[in-house]
């Protein structure tokens, strides 16, 4: 069974609250310089070519990384700790209900880096957050199957078009927000044709199971749980919805001051992703006890998850810009967002992007 992920009181972040955030609060801790000697050898998937070691100066002794309540394999396997602790860096993890909450924490200087869907960084940028797109998540053959518009088992709603006029629950500013808008377009419905209630997945799950939520836009592990244990029906999953996928996002200050560190982080995350996609059953065995989910359900979740990374390219950013433009068109964003303002220069991306990510166009 799934544990009660909502034990801690979670504040629902409304759009108005998100836009009310003004700027970035200065880091509360003093950044301390430390010098470590590491090899400049590529430890990615391709065979490394030995080169002379060089001295790298990090501007921090602590990496503060955020993850969502749905779990994080990088954290569970401890791959960053294994790589960074010998270099004198400590890794601190902070859990958040969903992407919008994680981005708000980044906006106010509580974390340096985190992984979210395509939508949260757009809303964060609209709120004035000084963020950088570090890397994208590669989309696999099962991309989209882990997110869906669902109804309870006994619901009279049989088709997506029938959600017109219904209360539809999802976390505003999350990937589900973009998903529902795109799905509505397919059946000639407008965003204004549904009654939106913003609620984090960890809170909405119980209400959906009790039958008080008629339509829920959610994702794994919550989706797999209500499908397998409670017979939830999927009206439409997110397959071919036209998303650029998720990203690793960092604060501008952290990224600019620690390019070598960012490269190491992305390298380890992608190496972990390569292992995960080749060992999905092992991933399920690791994650199931952490989230207290029955192993067969976690195996379903792991089978449709994406773990590898891809580099930031003009094509990817063009796709991300189209997402931002859609929110502005729907008058959900109060101003037009330029994704390029959250990017590095090509030279800076070359410095932080491992070789295994650069190769993907």
Structure description:
The protein has 361 residues and is of the alpha/beta class. 38% of the residues lie in helices and 18% in strands. The chain is built from 15 helices and 13 strands. The chain has helices at residues 15-20, 73-77, 79-84, 99-107, 120-126, 175-186, 201-210, 222-230, 252-257, 259-278, 280-291, 295-303, 314-329, 346-352, 355-358, and strands at residues 34-38, 54-58, 62-68, 90-96, 113-116, 131-137, 147-151, 167-170, 195-198, 215-219, 233-237, 247-251, 309-310. The strands form three sheets. Strands 4-3-5-12-6-13 form a six-stranded mixed beta sheet, with helices on both faces. A five-stranded mixed beta sheet has the order 9-8-10-7-11, with helices on both faces. A two-stranded antiparallel sheet has the order 1-2. Strand 8, helix 6 (175-186) and strand 9 form a beta-alpha-beta unit. The longest helix is centred in the last third of the chain and has 20 residues, at 259-278. It is globular. The termini are far apart.
């Amino acid at each position: 069974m799934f544990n009660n992920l909502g034990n801690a009181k979670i504040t629902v972040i409304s759009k108005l609250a998100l836009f009310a955030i003004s700027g970035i609060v200065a880091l509360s801790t003093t950044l301390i310089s430390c010098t470590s000697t590491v090899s400049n050898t590529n430890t990615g998937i391709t065979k490394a070519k030995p080169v002379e070691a060089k001295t790298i100066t990090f501007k921090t002794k602590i990496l503060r990384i955020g993850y969502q309540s749905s779990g994080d394999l990088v954290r569970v396997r401890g791959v960053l700790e294994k790589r960074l602790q010998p270099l004198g860096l400590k890794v601190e993890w902070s859990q958040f209900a969903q992407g919008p909450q994680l981005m708000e924490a980044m906006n106010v200087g509580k974390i340096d880096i985190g992984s979210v869907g395509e939508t949260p960084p757009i809303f964060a940028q609209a709120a004035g957050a000084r963020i950088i797109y570090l890397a994208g998540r590669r989309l696999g053959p099962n991309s989209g199957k882990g997110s869906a518009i669902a109804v309870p088992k006994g619901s009279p709603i049989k088709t997506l078009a029938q959600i017109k006029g219904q209360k539809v629950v999802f976390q505003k500013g999350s990937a589900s927000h973009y998903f529902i808008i795109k799905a509505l377009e397919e059946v000639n419905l407008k965003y204004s044709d549904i009654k939106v209630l913003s609620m984090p997945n960890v809170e909405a799950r119980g209400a959906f199971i009790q039958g008080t939520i008629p339509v829920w836009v959610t994702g794994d592990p919550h989706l797999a749980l209500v499908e397998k244990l409670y017979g939830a029906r999927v009206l439409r999953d997110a397959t071919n919805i036209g998303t650029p996928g998720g990203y690793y996002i960092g604060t501008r200050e952290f990224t600019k001051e620690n390019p070598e560190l960012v490269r190491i982080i992305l390298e380890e995350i992608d190496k972990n992703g390569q292992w995960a996609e080749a060992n999905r059953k092992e991933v399920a065995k690791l994650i199931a006890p952490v989230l207290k989910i029955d192993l067969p359900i976690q195996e379903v979740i792991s089978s449709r998850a994406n773990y590898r990374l891809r580099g930031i390219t003009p094509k990817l950013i063009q796709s991300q810009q189209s997402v931002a433009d859609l929110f502005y068109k729907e008058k959900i964003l109060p101003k037009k967002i330029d994704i390029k303002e959250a990017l590095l220069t090509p030279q800076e991306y070359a410095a932080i992007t491992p070789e295994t990510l650069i190769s993907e166009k």
